[in-house]
């Protein structure tokens, strides 16, 4: 029996939190605490927690429990078995919300650049477009925070179902966590951009292979005839091209520069290249100037991918480029927020993204002294800490500081980062003081990049959570000098 078969006869209303309930229709619930009599509970927890949650759901009156294995090894007439509970929940939630709809869905996945491509694609779609990602939700009218890059299925589906039919499209980020947990199952993508594959979230995935496998699930969501934009310079480009081809999608291999790129059989070729001070996109049937306000070739690639995504939703590339020229600033993505010295805030939190940010600012401000301020998160992948230090060594000045140490000792984290750095390192645990120090060391004519937290507005320690916003702090310095 296929995973979908057991759910085919169930007509339900998904719910993850208490809400007004239509009479006569049980909810399908993923949180056992919110089960009410007659509800269907889908057990998604692992190990011993699953039995505890199922017991709580039954105590609360669940009429049916959907899970992946038998309770205590015995058949039960109130238990329905499925091969994957998270997948089953997402598919049931899709059906209950009347999804998929005809509104085009454009997703971006990869290790870095997801938020930027998503933001650009959202702008290129035009007025009334929606956006979902790390920065927040936008329903075409208003913005609100989003606690997870790719939301849980019921929250996501409720948002999509409430969009007006006039919405020209939705740009969304597909995180490795969200893909691994099948949060997008049941949806169909008109377009997908794959930025790159580096090292990230190995504390969750365990291995690089598992991380890549999770990302590949995005390609399987493509609608037949949809478009997949693949980074032709990435070593894993062929994997994503093959997966997208198997889904019946069209492939665009997008490379940076006029040099040699990975050749992907059957793919259309597109190139982002420098023409004097401008960046250009040369794609099948069109050549346009990319309206760039962010430094770096990788941001030119991001912009080009966004235009190609918008074209997947029926927007001509030339019109998409016009709209992109008026795109609002992306919070915390190489965002210039102070001068004397020039001070940027960026979300870079992987070795690859930190390397790219430093290189972009080197190119944009050649000859200037460059300082970088950053740290590494606690309770996360410890293996990337020394490589982050190595990446930072490309700057003239390195200031290490706290970045959400969580339950770990902040000093121990920074010692691991410092071990990979072969430049002079300054350590200042107070983030504001670290930024001030870096600005002093860079000098009034220098450049500073404050990396790691981007748009985030708090710092998490073992015993407390404190408000902290790099963007607000740096902005407050905009009328000050470095003191030199």
- The CATH topology name of the largest domain reads UDP-N-acetylmuramoyl-L-alanine:D-glutamate ligase
Spatial order of strands in the largest sheet:
9-8-7-10-6-11-12-13-14-15-16
What is the radius of gyration computed over CA atoms, rounded to a whole number of angstroms?
24 Å
Tally of DSSP β-strands: 24
General form: globular
Secondary-structure-derived class? alpha/beta
Provide structural commentary:
It contains 15 helices and 24 strands. By secondary structure, the chain is of the alpha/beta class. The protein folds into three domains: 5-95, MurE/MurF, N-terminal domain (Udp-n-acetylmuramoylalanyl-d-glutamate--2,6- Diaminopimelate Ligase, Chain: A, domain 1, 3-Layer(aba) Sandwich); 100-325, UDP-N-acetylmuramoyl-L-alanine:D-glutamate ligase; 335-476, Protein-Tyrosine Phosphatase, Chain A (Alpha-Beta Complex), CATH 3.90.190. The strands form four sheets. Strands 9-8-7-10-6-11-12-13-14-15-16 form an eleven-stranded mixed sheet. Helix 1 links the parallel strand 3 (40-42) and strand 4. Helix 3 crosses helix 9 (297-312) and helix 3 (114-125) packs across helix 10 (317-325). The N and C termini lie far apart (73 Å).
């Amino acid at each position: 029996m296929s995973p979908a078969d057991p759910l085919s006869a169930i007509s339900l209303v998904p719910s993850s939190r208490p809400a007004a309930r239509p009479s006569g229709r049980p909810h399908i619930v993923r949180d056992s605490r919110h089960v009410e009599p007659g509800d269907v509970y889908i057990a998604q927890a692992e190990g011993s927690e699953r039995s505890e949650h199922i017991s709580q759901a039954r105590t609360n009156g669940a009429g049916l429990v959907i899970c992946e294995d038998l309770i205590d090894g015995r058949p039960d007439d109130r238990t329905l078995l499925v091969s994957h509970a998270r997948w089953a929940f997402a598919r049931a939630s899709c059906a209950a919300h009347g999804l998929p709809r005809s509104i085009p869905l454009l997703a971006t996945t990869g290790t870095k650049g997801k938020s930027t491509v998503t933001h650009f694609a959202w702008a290129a779609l035009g007025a009334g477009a929606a956006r979902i990602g790390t920065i927040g939700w936008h329903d075409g009218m208003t913005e609100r925070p989003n606690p997870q890059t790719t939301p849980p299925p019921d929250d996501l589906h409720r948002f999509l179902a409430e969009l007006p039919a006039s919405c020209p499209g939705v740009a969304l980020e597909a995180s490795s966590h969200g893909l691994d947990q099948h949060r997008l199952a049941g949806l169909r993508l008109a377009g997908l951009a794959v930025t790159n594959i580096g090292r990230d979230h190995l504390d969750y995935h365990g291995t690089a292979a598992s991380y890549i496998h999770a990302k590949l699930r995005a390609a399987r969501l493509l609608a037949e005839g949809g478009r997949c934009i693949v980074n032709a310079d990435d070593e894993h480009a062929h994997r994503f091209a093959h997966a997208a081809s198997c889904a019946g999608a069209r492939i665009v291999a997008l490379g940076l520069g006029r040099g040699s790129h990975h050749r992907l059989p059957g793919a259309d070729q597109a190139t982002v290249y420098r023409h004097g001070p401008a960046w250009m996109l040369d794609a099948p049937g069109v050549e346009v100037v990319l309206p760039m306000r962010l430094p770096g070739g990788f941001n030119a690639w991001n912009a080009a991918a966004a235009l190609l995504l918008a074209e997947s939703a029926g927007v001509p590339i030339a019109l998409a480029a016009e709209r992109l020229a008026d795109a609002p600033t992306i919070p915390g993505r190489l965002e210039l927020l102070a001068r004397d010295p020039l001070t940027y805030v960026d979300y870079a939190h992987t070795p690859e993204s930190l390397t790219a940010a430093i290189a972009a600012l080197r190119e944009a401000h050649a000859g200037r002294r460059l300082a970088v301020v950053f740290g590494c998160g606690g309770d996360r992948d410890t293996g990337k800490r020394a490589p982050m230090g190595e990446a930072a060594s490309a700057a003239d000045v390195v200031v290490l500081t706290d970045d959400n140490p969580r339950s770990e000792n902040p000093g121990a984290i920074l010692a691991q980062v410092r071990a990979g750095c072969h430049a002079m390192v300054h350590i200042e645990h107070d983030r504001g003081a670290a930024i001030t120090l870096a600005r002093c060391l860079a000098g009034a004519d220098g450049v500073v990049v404050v990396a790691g937290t981007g748009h985030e507005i708090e710092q998490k320690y073992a015993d407390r959570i404190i408000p902290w916003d790099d963007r607000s702090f740096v902005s407050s310095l905009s009328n000050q000098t470095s003191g030199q």
